[in-house]
Every structure is written in C-alpha cells, then in structure tokens.
Amino acid sequence: MPAPGPRQVQSAGSGVIVDAENGYILTNFHVIEDADEITVALEDNRALDAMVVGSDADSDIAVLQVEAEDLEEMPLGDSEQLRVGDFVLAIGNPFRLRHTVTSGIVSGLGRTGINPEGYEDFIQTDASINPGNSGGALINLRGELVGINTAIFSGSGGNIGIGFAIPVNMARSVMDQIISFGGVRRGLLGVNIGTVTPDVAETYDLEDTTGAFVTEVSSGSAAEAAGLEIGDVIVSVDGEAMDGPGALRNSIGLLRPGDTVTVGYMRDGELNTVMATLGERPSAGVAQRLSEIDPEFTGAEFATNNEARDDFNGTEGVLATVVEPGSAAYVNGLRSGDVITHVNRQRVRSLEEAREIIGAARSSVILQVARGNRGVLILMR
What we know:
The chain is mainly beta. The protein has helices spanning 29-32, 168-181, 198-203, 222-226, 245-253, 328-331, 351-360, and strands at 16-19, 24-27, 39-41, 47-49, 51-56, 61-65, 87-92, 100-111, 122-125, 137-139, 145-152, 163-167, 186-188, 191-195, 212-217, 233-237, 240-241, 260-267, 270-277, 279-281, 300-305, 317-323, 339-343, 346-347, 365-371, 374-380. It has four domains: 16-65, Trypsin-like serine proteases (Thrombin, subunit H, Beta Barrel); 79-181, Trypsin-like serine proteases (Thrombin, subunit H); 186-281, Pdz3 Domain (Roll), CATH 2.30.42; 289-380, PDZ domain (Pdz3 Domain, Roll), CATH 2.30.42.10.
C-alpha cells in the first residue's frame, strides 16, 4: 500500500491593497508562511492568484502582488499621530466572515513582548480581532490605514478585547525595502543588551531603570568604533528616549546600514553622547527559506554568512540559522550553525546563489558545509 502523500491544509487571513496601480498588498508574514498557493478574494467577488514579493519574519510583514484592473487602494495614514483613546476600525476576515468591520479605541501604544526576537511597537486596541483578522486593516475615522492587525491576547483563541496591530509607519518602511531590495536591510549597532534592573541601577549609579544595559560589545562593530563599553546604559538614539531593550532594538532595526546616529548613554553616573555609523544586520526569515524550492530543506532557515558574523569565523556561504529537530532538513543531516559553502560542487557565497543552483538541480542536492573546524558532505534526499 503506497504511503499517504502530504496532507493539504487551507488557511485564511486578511490583507490590504495599498498600491492599486502595481497590485501591492500588505499582510502578515505568518498569514502566508509556507504557503504553496495564495488566492486573494476581493469585495467584488473576484478571486486573484497572488505572488509573494517578499517578506520579513522579524516584523511579521509580507508584501503580495496581484495583476488586475480597477483595484481600489486604501490611503496610508500616519501612525505617529495616533493617541490613546482615538477611535479605530478593524477590517478583516475573521472565521472566514469576509469584510467584517469592528470598532474600538486605541488602548495603548508602543506595546512589546509578543515576540521578544521580533521588531515590535504595537498599537493595542479593543476593536474585536479574531483568527482570520491577521493582516487586515486598522483604520482611523478618516478611512486611513494606521495599522496591520496582527495578534491577540486570549486564553481561548478568541477576542477578549486585547488586540495588537503593527503601526503603518513601520509596515510602510518594511514594505518599501521589500519592494526595492527584495528584503529588509537593517542597521546593526553591535551590542548585546539587557534590562536595567533596580540592582543594575544601584550598582551603576543610575537614577532610574530606563534604557538598555550593554552586556557585550561585538568586535569590529559600530558600537566598538564609537567607544561604547560593557556597563554603559543606552538611553537615547537621535534624541529619542529608549525606555528599554525593545525600544533600542526597534529604533536601530528601522534604520539602514551606513546611517549615522547619535547615541546617548550613561557611564559612571554621567550622560554622554557619541556618533555611530551602523553596520548591517544579517537577515533571516521566510525570504531565507529554501523549502519552497526543495522540500528536503523543510524546517530550516538561512541567511547569507559574511564577515560580520564573528562567531562563524567570517566563512562566506549560506548560514543555517535554524534547523528544527525532526524536520526534513534535520533528518538529512543539516544542523543549526552549518555554513553551506558548495551546492552540487559549485561554490556559493550568498543565499541567492544557493537558491539558483538548488532550483536548477534535476536530482538530489549535495551540500558541502563548514561545521566548526571541519567540512561535512550532506546529501539532501
């Protein structure tokens, strides 16, 4: 009896047309993650095939594109103008109930902690958001897009009046980079940071617990060049107060490599400022998956490895940033931290080169990887 094939699963989410001329649609990364086919259902009952222009797992943003005439786009507002108490509307596809509109207010701004590894600056709202609303519009009373509905706090999976949306200013910045570059290039200061606890504040003669405590400065980084040291507490970037590690991560992550910023920091009880020219943060996310080309890579994520990654000795190639235990990639022998240097005996120095060779392969793919101080051959079969 033949083994059963892979089970097909359908899911539903929401999206917002933001550029009618070019057919661009904003949605969440988690809505389209691992999707083989994407169909966009419009209010006029048209069903359109969509392609993924690009996505960014760290901010949970994806950009789709459709080809169609007579599309209507939603105007973009300015999320910086939002205030707690403002009235907003959430539009989406909860439980496949198309074009559902709910109302509420802005309950909070600058919320973090949903995904500690992501870039977060959420709008909190009590407008009803349920499964299927993800990727949909949060709009102000002028009909302008101010957020992309993304997540809820709920013990049951349904709405309890605590929903979160990505500010449109952040979504627009990510979208512009995806459209221009195919991905997101983020600035890198080159520090590991932690929370300023009361004990840290007392030890380092700080007046309060705001800011981001520097626990490590990377060799060769922008932070090292600027003179930042372990024990410094970063309190501002370009004059904007940093109330904690999340704020600093977001602030730097929304800037681009080569940008110069003014960093305010506390040292020995005194406030200092320094200029720092940002490096580039190695990227990761759905644009760095290879499973859509070859299912043998399912369960792994990749990024181009370069000299900025001192922990892997600057080996040029494709870094396996994540390999999930038990996944197809793991069973084939790939491990987190492996750096792919050759694919089918061809040297690869970037993710784009690896994708091209894997996509053209007519049989099994053979990888040569650097693992620690040794080389390993892996047959992806």
